[in-house]
Amino acid sequence: MKIETIQGQVFVFPSYRCSDSAGHSHPSETVTEAKMALLTITADDGTQGRILAPVEVIRPFVLDSFARKVLIGQDPFDRERLWHALEQWQRGSAGQLTDRALAAFEQALWDLAGRKLGLPVYKLIGGFRDKVPAYGSTMCGDELKGGLSTPDEYADFAVKMVKRGYKGIKLHTWMPPVSFAPSVAMDIKACEAVREAVGPDVPLMLDGFHWYSRMDALTIGRALERLNFTWFEEMMNEQSIDSYAWLAGQLNVPILGPESAAGKHWARADWVRAGATDILRAGVPGVGGIGPVLKVAHLAESFGMDCEVHGSSAGNLAACAAIANCRWYERGLLHPFLEYDEPPPYLNTIWDPMDSEGFVHLSQEPGLGEDLNLDYIDAHTISTY
Ligand code: MG
């Protein structure tokens, strides 16, 4: 079996989200037109693997300069060899071949393999469970009345999330350009209000401003200890491993990371050695694929640590279901103004349906689990390459 073609396809869809000047996502007051890309890898027997990806990640230059050179003519089942061949191209790519692009190509290969073999990807990896408990992950704070603009609004929303079935809640608090952000005091108030509202037994996590100083991070961390939080995530610049080691050495609340730091599984080994984290972190796009997430999880398991998977996607869910030492699936981002359970028009169903007990169930269909509405995508395609 050989890879014959690699195609990118950009389509448009109506979105109820917008990005602020720092790139954080919020509910939009008007419907906007958003773009998404679909990557399709086709083998010589007609089997296809697909994955949705941001438009820039799999733009024509990336397909022409790297993916087609490395993948065309190769056996799509040689994921490990092909991943390393792509990964080594990164050095000479002047930053153009990103970890996110690696993740897109690798996930399309997983999807192709699952479809060829008639298996969901998590079973192909080796399943650990068929449903994963989800924590509800809020959007970043805002200044929208009735949204996430005050500690009390976070508390009200947290109560609704618990009623929906979520067994854990993670707050993303306020970041610039919100007028009063960043604010140590407001972050602590939001955490206090949510703890007060949901009671002592609901696991809570904080993912606040990512560029606090050591002393600000320590102040928040002490409050989270008092409030019995489950973890404290990316509160400082992750480029400084030593700052995380300094903080982890002083706090009892578990530190989780790194999420956005580069370096895939190799960098995460350095974090463990440095004592910079208590719970490892890896997301499929962030570390370059499902394979590297599994490597991080197995590294963590070998050290008796958990590895929590970053972000909502079919690939992340498949990884969660194939890892023993991952407690949660991150579901979101959630906001009082947005309906997460409704599929966007390019999907027939969402990839992470959650029951009233807070469990997300894995699709039993062959492949990665993205239930694409290909008719909608084809009808709204603006470029194919
Ligand atoms: Mg995070």
Report low-confidence residues grouped into runs of 5 or more: none
Q: What structural class is derived from the secondary structure elements?
A: alpha/beta
Main sheet properties: 7 strands, mixed
Present as ligands are: magnesium ion
Tally of alpha and pi helices? 13
- Helicity range: 25-40%
Please provide the count of β strands: 15
- What fraction strand? 15-25%
Return Rg in Å.
21 Å
Mean pLDDT across every amino acid position: 98
The arrangement of helices and strands along the chain is EEEHHHHEHEHEHEHEHEHHEHEEEEHE
Shape assignment: globular
Distance between the termini: 23 Å
Structure description:
The chain has 385 residues and is an alpha/beta fold. The protein contains 13 helices and 15 strands. It has helices spanning 60-71, 79-89, 99-117, 121-125, 151-164, 184-198, 214-226, 241-248, 264-274, 284-287, 290-302, 314-321, 374-379; strands spanning 3-19, 25-43, 48-53, 131-138, 168-172, 204-207, 231-233, 255-256, 280-282, 307-309, 329-334, 347-349, 359-361, 371-372, 381-384. Strands 4, 5, 6, 7, 8, 11 and 13 form a 7-stranded mixed sheet that branches. A 4-stranded antiparallel sheet has the order 3-2-1-15. Helix 1 (60-71) packs across helix 2 and helix 6 (184-198) packs parallel to helix 7. The radius of gyration is 21 Å and the shape is globular. The mean pLDDT is 98. The structure holds magnesium ion (MG).
Task: Summarize the structure in short.
This protein has 385 residues and is an alpha/beta fold. It is built from 13 helices and 15 strands. The chain starts with a strand and ends with a strand.
